[in-house]
Every structure is written in C-alpha cells, then in structure tokens.
Design a protein that fits this description.
By secondary structure, this protein is mainly α. The chain has nine helices and no strands.
C-alpha cells in the first residue's frame, strides 16, 4: 500500500475518532432534544468511518492500529448513539465505564490480528483495561452500593499499586520465559510500506 493511501486511511480513522469524541462529550453536557437530533449524526459518521477503516485494514493496510481504531469506532459509536437516543435504559453517566471494556476488547483483537496468535505481553494489558472498565461499571450502575468518590480516593491508589506489582512480576516472568516478550516482527512505519511497493514493482 502506497504512502498516499495510508495517509488517507489515517485521516479517515482520526476524523472518525474526532466525531466520536465530540459526540461523547456532547452526550454528557447536552440534553435538549432539538440538539440531540443534530448531535446524533456524529456517531453515525464515526461509525461509517470506522467501517471504512476496518474494511481497508483487511484489504490494504493490514495495520493493527487501523484495526483497533476501526473496531473501536464501530462499537463505541453504536454505544453513544443508543445513549443519545435513549434507546437503552440508563444514561451515559452509567454507561461510560463500558468504553474501557470496548478499548480492551478492540486492543486484544488488534494484537491477535497483528501477531496471528495471542501474545501474553500484549493480551494482558488489554484484559486489564477490559476488567477495569467492568469494575468501574459496578459502581456506575450502583450494583455495588459505595460512593464513586470513595472508590476514586481508595481504589485508584490501590489500583496503581497493584499495576506496579503486576508490571514487576511480568518483567521477572518475561526474563525467564522469553516467548512472553512481544517482538514487533512487522513495522507499522511508512518506510516499510514504500519498500514493499518498490520490491513488488521490480
């Protein structure tokens, strides 16, 4: 894939991310129905650009970050659209932790697509984000009857400590089992794409 097409795909993915971010922010601060109908077009546009990114990833670029952005835009846009239209029972204030679930899910499949198998050094961070989103949703949906402020003050430092312990443990395990280390066999740089095009043309 040449550099121009890759740049256009990047623009589509980042533009879709911009539409998604605006839709998410507006869904929090805007409640007037006449504005909601206008804002609802943003996740639709983000969804379309996400589909384009996903399709062109499989057909042309084969880049993990394009797959991640495309998959996240599709899932996240549906999520925000449902919240904006009040199709789901709860508001964005309850649903927002599930964005972490979507990030973890998309990241996991992007890593699997890139390496053609599950790499523990890549899958564990994705799983951590996924579980952290689920953990926060327990409090946002009031499944656990504890103030979210208390969770933030106590849970956040505890979570950081656990992450540090986990990273040290993972480093020690990686030193013993080298196959856990993620080796980037395929670069995502423009130079590699250009070299591939040049070699194929020789």
């Amino acid at each position: 894939m040449n550099k121009t097409k890759l740049i256009l795909l990047d623009v589509a993915a980042y533009l879709g991310s911009g539409f998604f971010l605006c839709a998410f922010i507006f869904s929090i601060f805007v409640s007037d129905p006449k504005y909601i109908n206008i804002i609802s077009f943003m996740p639709v546009l983000a969804f379309i650009l996400g589909v384009i990114s996903l399709v062109f990833t499989f057909v042309y670029s084969h880049k993990a970050y394009h797959l991640f952005l495309g998959l996240f835009l599709i899932l996240g846009s549906v999520f925000v659209f449902l919240c904006l239209k009040n199709i789901v029972s709860w508001t964005i204030y309850q649903w927002w932790p599930l964005l972490g679930v979507l990030v973890g899910f998309s990241s996991f499949f992007a890593g699997k697509y890139k390496y053609k198998k599950i790499k523990i050094g890549y899958a564990i961070p994705s799983l951590s984000i996924f579980l952290f989103g689920l953990w926060l949703s327990l409090f946002s949906f009031k499944i656990v009857k504890i103030s979210f402020t208390t969770v933030a003050l106590i849970g956040a430092p505890l979570f950081m400590i656990l992450v540090c312990i986990f990273l040290v443990a993972l480093l020690l395990v990686q030193q013993k089992y080298k196959n856990l280390v993620v080796k980037d066999d395929s670069s995502d740089s423009f130079d590699d794409d250009e070299l591939t095009v040049e070699k194929s043309g020789e």
